[in-house]
Design a protein that fits this description.
The protein has 70 residues and is mostly helical. It has four helices and no strands. It has one domain.
């Protein structure tokens, strides 16, 4: 999946948020791994869509409070 040019800043911000809740070395793998909370889509599949990013940030929140698995 490619990042749309107009979403680059949002992508960088999202990656920074990922680094805050999981090991930096795991972020790239996690972004490309299907996740059950996302109906088996990878986070990268949803990053270009406003609604998809909302789901991703919600998932990060639940990971941070240990209500969801990485």
């Amino acid at each position: 999946m490619r990042i749309e040019k107009n979403n680059l800043i949002e992508f960088v911000n999202f990656v920074n948020e990922c680094c805050a809740v999981m090991d930096d070395n795991y972020v790239a793998e996690w972004l490309n791994k299907p996740h059950p909370y996302l109906n088996m889509y990878c986070p990268m599949d949803l990053i270009n869509d406003d609604g998809g990013r909302d789901k991703l940030y919600r998932l990060l929140y639940f990971i941070e409070i240990e209500e969801a698995d990485i």
